[in-house]
Amino acid sequence: MSEPRQGIRFAAVLNSTRRAAGLSYRQLAQASGISHSFLSHVEKGERRAPPAKAILELADALEADRLTFALAAIADRAGSDVATTMVAALRRGPVGRNIDPTAGGVLIESGPADTEAELADLADHDDAVDELASRLAFVDLQLGDDGSMRLGISVAGDDDPIVLLVSAHANADSPSD
Q1: Residue % of the chain over a pLDDT of 90
Q2: What 3 state SS string does the chain have?
Q3: pLDDT bucket at 37, cuts 50 / 70 / 90
């Protein structure tokens, strides 16, 4: 029995871009710093797309559009992965309407009046990822040239979407374990 297809969109983008560039798995692995074996599994849809940093490294190694690669990976990781990322950002905080996202916060650009309290309550629960994933009606993601991410979230049962702005630069400067 074959493995389930996990990353169909990203696999197709990676495969077509790599072939158009005339590179083998090994050549791309050397240029990107990512294992050729892992790249092979990703292209076959046996593994999901790598983390964001590796996605950008692959796009750069192939001299391809970063946004195309990122959007393909995001499309494959929708649902619980979007919820996991959002809950991590909310827990890292601060979250509010007057927050500087470049300093590591999450700016609420729009949403119902009680959005800040609702997001804080949600982030405090052990099952926050599952709860958020179950309530997502759609997610619209925009990546800015400055490294920012704007997330538009429609929560089932609520007419007003929530729009959050997070800076990718703030994450890059965070100390790692």
Answers
A1: 25
A2: CCCCCCCHHHHHHHHHHHHHHCCCHHHHHHHHCCCHHHHHHHHCCCCCCCCHHHHHHHHHHCCCCHHHHHHHHHHHCCCHHHHHHHHHHHHHCCEECCCCHHHCCEEEEECCCCHHHHHHHHHHCCCHHHHHHHHEEEEEEEECCCCEEEEEEEECCCCCCEEEEEEHHHHHCCCCC
A3: very high
